[in-house]
Amino acid sequence: MVFIGEFIVSTERSDKRLIGMKKYVINIFRECVKSVLPRNIIKNTLKFDSKTLYVKDTKFFVPKNIYVVGFGKAVLEMALEVEKVLNGTLKKAVVSVPFGTRRHINHSQVCIMEAAHNNIPDQHSVENTNCIINTIKSMEDDDILIVLISGGGSALLCSPTVPLSDKIITTKLLSSHSATIEQLNTVRKALSHVKGGKLINLVKKSTVISLILSDIVGDPLSAIASGPTIPNNDSHDLPIEIIKHFNLLDKIPSTVLNALEQNKPFNCLNVERVHNYVIGNNSVALQTGIEYTQKDYTSVLLTKSLQGKVALVSKFYSNLIIFVCHVYLDPKNINEALKNELILNISKVDKEIDIDMLTRKVIEASSNKSGLCILSGGEPTVKVQGIGLGGRNQELALRISVNIERHSAFLKQFDILFFSGGTDGIDGPTDACGAFAYPGLVDTARFQGLNPSQFIENNDSYGFYSLYNEGEDLFKIGHTGTNVMDLHVLIIKPN
Questions:
Q1: Is this prediction's pTM over 0.70?
Q2: Which domains does the chain have, with CATH numbers?
Q3: Which of 436, 373, 439, 446 is nearest to 412 (CA)?
């Protein structure tokens, strides 16, 4: 048996080359995640000297006390590093983090409160938020408030204007209909006392410094954790329009419908005292991956902003694999039909992808007889129709394996491995981070009595990967303490 990260590979079942590629891909993923670990980012962002706080290139005079509040999957490590930087001058720190994050920390003032199993707000989220609100209200004029924000913050900072259960029902309905994170957060803001800039109205005459770890394509500040420190520029009728767009008017609770119909514009106070900084995102992680792989492969950073339904994203990647292999074998005669099909699929998931740049990189790899490593980032969505267990990363990998099956004879000329993983370490309501895809997976699965397509129809990718080869193609790492969306790694090399 060979251990790879937190999963086990049987050398009897797996090709040795495939085992080596899996090890390499997991090393890439680990390096990418390490580059966006909160402690490293805070250390590079924040400096403190006597009465002066430095945030990047900006100076803030500190006349009185510094308070810290935070909410999100990454904010515990952020808070601990802030405490270290402030070197004993921290007045109080309160953070709301996912269950399973808390640990014993010696000599720390940081109050750690857990909530939100499976990224769903609960009564603990509400209680934690009340504690954060009370902390902010206890501040005096001219104190400084540092707000730490990361992915998962929407579930961990929760003060709903409607019954919590009704808000959860609404969120689940939107998620199951493939609503984007921006659409979800627009509705969340309209149903909250603290989201959409409302948190900063609780602050008196104090400076607010928000340090944000982005988990959304394009870093839209108003959408990250539903923008509690960002003025909400959504039109007052946009939330109800989103509900109508997904034909959910007759499905959401009446309390939510009434609240959205009565939604009014909200004015943020003290905006001039608020300073928001994005201190980490998937660009940092992906660039680290490029630097790690370029000594071994011709490396390509394809995109940082892949999004759309996972079915479309899987079709894009399947087309990409076939196109790359054709170009590699015959770089002087580009198959225009395959190229046009790929361009069509690109238009559905990320219009910024440069196919000409990609083609040049493939030709370069072919000329050098080197393998190609393609890195991408983003966050697809899944429309849940079944009752199985899974996540977007696992379903993406499984769909790709199914899509490329009919090309298995052609693809035997290459060693191909795809991996999709969430940088937070958790994919959907499972204990897996992500999963692998490769040619031959489907045939092997059928030999084992498994039908991948049936698992996909039931949104049960976790169920499939748990059974297939005794779970060797699931990667489990646990909470990483950071979150900059998903990372995709695709390796293609001639065998």
A1: yes
A2: 38-159+194-232+268-280 (3.40.50.10180), 283-494 (3.40.1480.10)
A3: 439
